[in-house]
Amino acid sequence: MNSGEATPVGSDRRRRRRRASHARIRSAARLLFRERGFDATTVDEIAARADIAQKTFFNHFASKDALLDELAGAVLAHFERLLEFECKRSDSVELRLDGFFLSVASEIEEARILTRDLLHRIIRGASAEANGSLELERVRKAFRQILIEGRERGEVATAPSLEFQVDMVSGAFITVMLQWLNAPEYPLRERLRETARFLSFALVSFNLGPKPLASEG
Fold first, then answer.
1. What CATH number does the domain located at 6-60 have?
2. Tens-place pLDDT, residues 134-190
3. Among 27, 39, 70, 195, fewest CB within 10 Å belongs to which?
4. Do 113 and 37 form a contact (C-beta atoms < 8 A)?
């Protein structure tokens, strides 16, 4: 009877130890990637910082790239939470986009090296890897919900199509990120704020009806 009860207890203990080791590896990697960057950091250094054997690292992650993939997914989840927070704080599409874009800028400025590596993984990997495309679809899904709610309130035009609007909003956001990835001195915060205002104006101005071209005046 006692031996039968020991198995679940021992199994639970092993799961707790595994979760703790996994968390230490992630934490150690984040610190090292933040200090030195992904390419300059080795698996041995991550294992040493996490106080585990190298073999233990590979029990949790197939490679350093697999670890970066997991961290990139966590960043997307964090961005989704930031957007959810802005949605709870305001009903305005403009304020939601502005608040979210500025929150992202603050996060990036606070951990520039780490964020650069993670965004490279998310954005540039999307064109070559199926999981990257799925990750970017999470960005589209979050923006889609804002636009749906804006349409329901009459704040966002119902033409052009919702999917076109989602393409424009998510595409503008990703383009600004790519500009920053290519040029470290790119004025990220300023461009994100300008992008939020431009998108808000464009989404609403369709409700005003088509305007004649200058040549038609």
1. 1.10.10.60
2. 667 877 888 998 999 999 988 999 888 999 999 999 999 989 988 888 887 899 999
3. 39
4. yes
